[in-house]
Amino acid sequence: MRARPPPYLSLPDSAKVRFLMPPPDYDPLAPVNLRDPYPTYALMREHAPVLWHDRMQCWVVSRYADCVAVLRDHDTFARDPRRVGEALSEPSLSVQSLDPPELGPLRRLLMNAVHAHDLDGFAQRGRERAADLLSVLAEKETFDVVADFASPFSLESVCDLLGVDRPEPGSFVAASDAIMRSMDAGLRPETAEPGRLARHQLSALVASWFADSGKPGLLADMRRGAPTVGVPETYVRNTARVLFQGGYSTMVAAIGNVVALLMERPGLLERLGASEFRHCGIDEMIRYDGPVQGTSRTATCAATIGSTRIAAGQTVLVLYAAANHDPEQFARPDELLLDRSPNPHLGFGWGPHACAGTILAQTVLHAVVDALAEHPDRLCPSGSFARRRTATMRGWERLPAAFAPVTRTTSTEESP
Asked: Which of 7, 186, 201, 414 has the greatest number of beta carbons closer than 10 A?
């Protein structure tokens, strides 16, 4: 559940300040970075922690302390582009784009709906849904984890959460994909228009929900509570669209990343079942290789990050994924340590725009891991994995897999 503005969109011209030293080569869509961006992130943290990127026309921040400082200081670093004189269309006014204090009532409305949700029931339905899907897939010689499991599971889960009927999967998945790819329009301008059209398509879908009486769920709770706290219906509609599409796409990517790790590292699934790892193990997997790579803010006034001067109106890209591997914050950051605690990673954001559905996302991932752990056979790769060619969202295009009747053994060796 990501927030606007997408970090790689083209930005207005602004004064450019350049590093005197050569920066590391940072092309988010380069095959080497799609495969493994973390060595590049390490070079950036060490040699150019506040890097001016010509093509994206923004500053790129990679150290944990700097990232948190930007996310915390919403007075200086704006999410809402209207604060720096840019336009924001009515369909974009949502929990992801507004800033405090205007954000406050809407976010409280959403969080109250989340806290009122039947999490135990949601978790149980998720486990049953995942187990049913896996049972069907186990009958196949091979299948794709992304298309055949993560996508239908995520769509059903987000519909369950919001309390809405499932749309036709083919058209929705295509629209969601177009929106996700358009977040990289600064790097791939040809994705902007398909993304705009897809957002319009999903807005029409959300409008149809408001014409119905509504089933129990987050949307009904928000609609019921909005008038009492003075939140316009427009904000609720736009937030519902963001939760639906953003929740789905992030969920698909997160499930794919987690399942890929489970397939690539024999014994990891068994270790996650141990009580000492159960609570924090999945959270560590999000830190280690989470779906959302970053978000952006715009300076409302001149500011300094580290020793770098940021001019008013310039945009700062906060690289969550780089911060999550910062050795100044995380011991042995490039290792997957299932018992890592505390674990203040940025995989779900930080501050007033942190992901409102963090606990729901964790619940969904636990349901998937539980279903895989309880399946009688082990999920194994059945071909080469392929990453999606997207920069903002790190996920898999293909994860070919098959179930194999392998006797499980419990490993006590720590994952590398």
From this structure: 7
CA atoms within 13 A on the CB side of 50: 18
Long-range contacts of 178-184 (CB under 8 A, 24+ apart): 179/245, 179/249, 180/249, 180/390, 180/392, 180/393, 181/390, 182/6, 183/2, 183/6, 183/7, 183/8, 183/9, 183/390, 183/391, 183/392, 183/393, 184/6, 184/8, 184/28, 184/29, 184/390, 184/391, 184/392
- Give percent helix, percent strand, percent coil of the chain, each to the nearest 5: 50, 10, 40
Q: Give the whole-angstrom CA distance, residue 56 versus residue 67.
A: 18
**Worst-scoring range by mean pLDDT, 173-177, 343-347, 352-356, 390-394?**
352-356
d(CA 100, CA 77): 12
Note the Cα 136 to chain centre separation in Å.
28
- Whole-angstrom distance, CA of residue 218 vs CA of residue 116: 9
Alpha helices in 344-401 (DSSP H): 358-374
Exposed e or buried b for every residue in 342-369, given b needs 16+ CB within 10 A?
A: eeebbbbbbebbebbbbebbbbbbbbbb
- Among 318, 336, 341, smallest CA distance to 416 is for 336
pLDDT in tens, 330-375: 999 999 999 999 999 999 988 888 888 788 889 999 999 999 999 9
Question: Are the beta carbons of 67 and 346 closer than 8 angstroms?
Answer: yes
The model's pTM: 0.90
Distance between CA 243 and CA 202 in Å, rounded? 11
